[in-house]
Amino acid sequence: MAVPKRKKSRSNTRHRRSQWKATAPNLVACPTCREPKISHLACENCGTYNRRQVIPQG
Amino acid sequence: MPKPTKGARLGGSPAHERLILANLATSLFEHGRITTTEAKARRVRPFAEKLITKAKKGDLHNRRLVAEVIRDKSVVHSLFTEIAPAFAERPGGYTRITKIGPRRGDNAPMAVIELVAEPLSTATVGATETKGEGAEKLDLTKADAEAAEGAEEQATEAKAADAEAKGDEDAEAKGDEDAEAKGDEDAKDAKDEDAK
After folding, report:
1. B100: which chain A residues are within 8 Å (Cβ-Cβ)?
2. Is A51 contained in some domain?
3. Is the model's pLDDT at B8 over the cut of 50?
4. The domain containing residue A28 runs over which residues?
5. Chain A residue closest in CA terms to B182
6. Distance (Å, whole) CA B78 – CA B175
7. Exposure class string for B132-143: b at 16+ Cβ within 10 A, else e
8. How many domains does chain A have?
9. Which of B100, B179, B190 sits opposite A41 (nearest CB)?
10. How confident is the model at residue B120 (pLDDT cuts 50, 70, 90)?
11. What are the structural domains of chain B?
12. Distance in angstroms (rounded) separating the CA atoms of residues B154 and B136
């Protein structure tokens, strides 16, 4: 069975893991409630998209 | 070689996929709107719209073709007697998919697919037949929705946006651009209010 020949150094490990990055979501103001929402998705706060009620509230 | 169907494969086998799509379409016609994953919504949309097109023809042959897919007779009846006449004027595009974000548990992107309930709007008709009138009506509705202050400025802005959008032949694309322009104006409004 193939096994690693050398121990991977902390430096190499940490250098590789430094490239794991999260990207910030693209937020826009909801046209109805002004809350920030993710673009192209219905607003989580008021449940509207394009001023149309998509998620029933209450 | 046959071209594969667009979109994700569903279920574990072709038979399972057919059953999933048939059940989703049946639920959609029964309830008018269903919440499902985005992949399933994208697969069921052309499937359901073809069934509605058959229902709009309305003869016995098409009724039998639909009944092969939708096993619930009451749903077939309501599709032919209620849903299809409501879409008599609409040239396709009977359903709407709205993304509602990831689901808890497996983070699957969810969507709402619904039958379009609104009558064929002045915006769409105006874009295809009487472009100028439709644009003016849109401006009026926008002006009403906004505060009285600066409504004229916004109307001119909206007209400019409409003028840009007029180049597009596609009515839906026009609607999208209008909506975006509207959103921009709203953002400006919010900033103005904050400044005050």
Report:
1. 41-42, 54-55
2. yes
3. yes
4. 24-58
5. A31
6. 31
7. eebbbbbbeebe
8. 1
9. B100
10. confident
11. 14-115 (3.90.1030.10)
12. 13
Alpha helices (H) in chain B, listed in sequence order: 14-31, 38-57, 60-69, 73-78, 84-86, 122-128, 131-145, 151-166, 171-195
Type of residue at B172: E
Helix (H) or strand (E) holding A15: helix A10-17
Over the stretch B132-148, which tens digit does the pLDDT of each residue have? 444 444 444 444 444 44
**Interchain CB contact of A26 with B (< 8 Å):** no
Q: Which residue has the higher pLDDT, B151 or B57?
A: B57
Rg of chain B (C-alpha set): 21
Percent of chain A clearing pLDDT 70 (strictly above): 100
CA distance B60 to B54: 10
Look up the ipTM and state it: 0.81
d(C-alpha B176, C-alpha B1), whole Å: 37
Q: Residue A20 contacts by C-beta under 8 Å, 6 or more apart in sequence?
A: none
**Where does B58-150 have alpha helices with state H?**
60-69, 73-78, 84-86, 122-128, 131-145
Give a yes or no: residue A53 inside a domain: yes
Instruction: Copy the structure tokens of residue B189.
Output: 């409004």
